[in-house]
Amino acid sequence: MEGLETEIAEWRDFIARALEGQEVEELEGHLRDQIADLTKAGLTDDEAFLVAVRRIGGVDDLSREFAREHSGRLWRQLVVSDDEESPKSRWPVTLAFAMAAAITIQVARLAAGFPAEESSWLTRNLSLLVLPFLAGYFAWRRRLAPLHWLFALAPFVVAAAVVNLYPFVAGGSTELLVAAHLPVAVWFVVAYPYMGGAPGSHERRMDYVRFTGEWLIYYVLIALGGGVLLGLTTLILEPAGVDSELIVEWALPSGAAGAVVVAAWLVEAKQRVVENMAPALTMVFSPLFAVMLVGSAVVYAVTGLGGAFDRELLGVFDLMMVVVLGLVLYGVCARDPSKPPGWTDRIQLVAMAGALVLDLMVLGVMIARISELGFTPNRTAALGLNLVLLVALSGTALLTARFLKRDSTIHRLERWQTGYLPVFAVWAAVVVVVLPPLFGFV
Amino acid sequence: MLTWYRRCVIVQIDKDLVAASATPLVLAILAEGDSYGYAILRRVRRLSAGEIEWTDGMLYPLLHRLHRLGYVATEWRASPEGRRRRYYTITEEGRRALTRRRSQWATVTRALDDVWGRFVVLPFAGA
Questions:
Q1: pTM above the 0.90 mark?
Q2: What's residue A47's pLDDT?
Q3: CA A7 to CA A3: how far, in whole Å?
Q4: Is A364 part of any domain?
Q5: With contact defined as beta carbons under 8 Å apart, do B65 and B85 qualify?
Q6: Which range is most confident: A150-159, A203-212, A278-287?
Q7: What is the SS3 assignment for B75?
């Protein structure tokens, strides 16, 4: 009997490498039931153990099957099946992509006349100088066929043509709007190579959302580390008479561009780290955001929005709404789908309710202003963004509420969210492509 | 002879067919009452007289998928031996899915029966 227990313990440790705690417990229960039945039928402990283990199947197959089911752990499937190439052998190519992005940004800057002039051309094209390398990196990682490489990179060419052939009035608001919306549209373009050239499925989209959140975390961490490094460098070299501003001016853009690729590499190479950290961060910040949103909703409901309302505040409001939505979206995709509704879901609902109230107030003010003064590029873009956000927030809030009442499943909420994602991409693309000619490029 | 024939059939049941029938089979078993993984497998074996062979472990990813889709609810209960055991209960959504699958399968088998009814002799039929 003792021998059997040791054998079971060893087997449990072995499968625990690839599976989660509850799955291991469930499988162990299964193994023990099977062994009990087999020994009752006359087999010895050893024989029964061997047969039972054999029947449960190989750990590789099992973990792959589980990984497919919990698509969030898709990386494990990659890890399991990617035998011929270890993560270590990937970093030189990754580094090459990062370096290419870093060098491109410097070349473009010099071509734009840096440091003699501040170029709006550079601001407008910034995302097109960096993100193609991220797309290329994923196209290489996912081993896309040549035709899919073409599909992955063609949107960048189209975007570059649009952004550079439009006769923008220098310093006009449409140009600024394009600079703000193009990165969003282009980020969705990167989704294509990320998904391995097979777009569309709900699980893949969810993976991309998760990737975006985790990439952001890594990027912020790298930025913090980079800031410390730059600060120390200037402190050390200043006494030697080196112009510290020069160092920052040249190192910062390259670092920021290269970090885009490096962060993406880290998300996949060090998945476990961020996988544990991200839900914790969501858990910490969701309540804080909920308090902040409800607080501001109350404040503005009392004081009214009209007086304090200007263009900057509008931008802040929109940014906040995007952050809340991102937090909720990320919170949903990072949560364990098998868990029943809990307090985090309730807090997120509160945060969404606060954001909804604020969004409605903003919309009211904006519509009043538009009916009084007419459409401008800025007002149109802001109105559209707020409407897109309003639908996203109310839909998510409604489904969360139904999920809390156990009227609906988390799965339906996930599906609704991933189904709505293209709307953001389309709106960003509309602002980039349609809005400027509509308003005469002013 | 019979065992040989049976082994032959086991090998012949197409993987895709086993996969396609797994969901309705599990849902139907759960519609009879709450159950846990090992008992579900035992029931499948008995129902098919051992002809539908699953790799035991594969049942669990399937059960988790059904759970995510909202077709089943789960709960840890204590087994008579004092261990924890994960029980699965079919939900209303699951029952609806089962009804849907059932009518789909009925259509398929009816169509197959119609076609095959014209050929009287099946290979191995006399074994």
A1: no
A2: 86
A3: 6
A4: no
A5: no
A6: A150-159
A7: strand
Chain A CB contacts of B81 under 8 Å are 32
Range of the domain at A16: 2-69
Q: Is residue A321 part of a domain?
A: no
The answer to whether position A146 is within a domain reads: yes
Tokens of A89: 């052998």
Binary contact (A29, B86; C-beta < 8 A): yes
Domains (range + CATH), chain B: 2-116 (1.10.10.10)
ipTM of the modeled complex: 0.77
**Which of these, A442, A421, A414, A137, lies nearest to A263 by C-alpha position?**
A137
**Mutation for A interface: B18, B60, B86, most A CBs within 10 A:** B60
> What is the tens place of the pLDDT at every residue in B45-87?
888 877 777 777 778 888 888 888 889 998 888 877 778 889 9
B126 close contact with A: CB closer than 8 A? no
Q: Do A108 and A185 share a structural domain?
A: yes
Query: Within 10 Å of residue A325's Cβ, how many Cβ atoms?
Result: 21
- The DSSP annotation for A99-168 comes to HHHHHHHHHHHHHTTTTTS--HHHHHHHHHHHHHHHHHHHHHHTT--HHHHHHHHHHHHHHHHHHHHS-P
Would you state the structure tokens that stand for residue A306, as one six-digit string? 């009209």
Q: Are A72 and A206 a contacting pair, CB within 8 Å?
A: yes
Instruction: Map tokens 């879901």 to a residue.
Output: A345
Distance CA A351, CA A393 (A): 10
| Euclidean distance between CA atoms A322 and A293, whole angstroms | 13
Q: Are residues A165 and A217 in the same domain?
A: yes
Structure tokens at A65: 């099957």
Interchain CB contacts (distance < 8 Å): A and B:
72
Verify whether the Cβ–Cβ distance A34 to B38 is below 8 Å. yes
A407 touches B at CB < 8 Å: no
pLDDT tops 60 at residue A164: yes
**A411:B85 CB<8 A:** no
Annotate A331-348 with b (16+ C-beta within 10 A) or e (fewer): bbbbbebeeeeeebbebb
The residue among A212, A235, A269 that closes a domain is A269
Q: What is the pLDDT of residue A116?
A: 67
Interchain CB distance below 8 Å, B61 and A22 = no
